[in-house]
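Reopening this ticket.

The earlier resolution said the output was attached, but the attachment link was broken on my side. Pasting everything inline this time so it's all in one place.
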Amino acid sequence: MSAIDGLPPLREVIAAHDLSAKKALGQNFLLDLNLTAKIARAAGDLSGCDVLEVGPGPGGLTRGLLAEGARRVLAVEKDARCLPALAEIAAAYPGRLEVLNADALALDLLAHLRPPIKVVANLPYNVGTELLVRWLTPPAWPPAWESLTLMFQREVAERIVARPGSKAYGRLAILAQWRCDAQIVMRLPPEAFTPAPKVASAVVHLRALAEPRFAAEQGLLERVVAAAFGQRRKMLRASLRGLSPDIEGVLTAVGIAPTERAEQVPIEGFCALARALAGERDS
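Inline output:
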């Protein structure tokens, strides 16, 4: 697909603005507008929604989001070289694209948007996981956003959707699946990008649940999970001993064998453990 909106093909845009991807910024540009449109559609119906995009680069996905009917797109781009190309897109979609030349980690981006909000982004590799964790751990739930449709390295995507008992299962899977439905909706080979990264990529769609699957204090659950997976080769009675003087008794009381290892415990088990530790703390 050479164009979806009368604007030039992305290869021409990159050449015109001399936008070679910078490794230091985690940039790998997706130039096929068929693929960027497919990612936009994976986010569901965008009409009537504000969409946050982080790391638009030359604007391939930005164009897909606008062509798919997003009410408004807020594109946050750290690389000032991309601004002229994004300005051309803004001119083609009057009043529907706002571009912030900023570091996405330094701003409360959702405060710039009006609900309903969806986040759709080919995230820069070097900040993707940190942004995801921030979006999954707001002060209150449900969050300001309805869904996240995000591209990651395939290994990270598989960690987000991993199930108990697998090597990929860990902190990221629990944070994501405790409060969201998460699934991989697209897989992309390295050669889909310019320059081609050394790893494959995948798009994950996370839909926020109205409330967490199981009751637990967010902060305490995070502490439990971090301790358990911080020493994932150890039995839980060893990795969690800093959380309670009677951690074996607490584990046994919630139905978890003290000799289990972290990757064997489902989300429900970690939540039960967090509740028990909260009760011990408050008694």
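Reporter confirms the inline version is readable. The domain at 218-282 is CATH 1.10.8.100 (Helicase, Ruva Protein; domain 3). The first strand starts at residue 29 and ends at 30.
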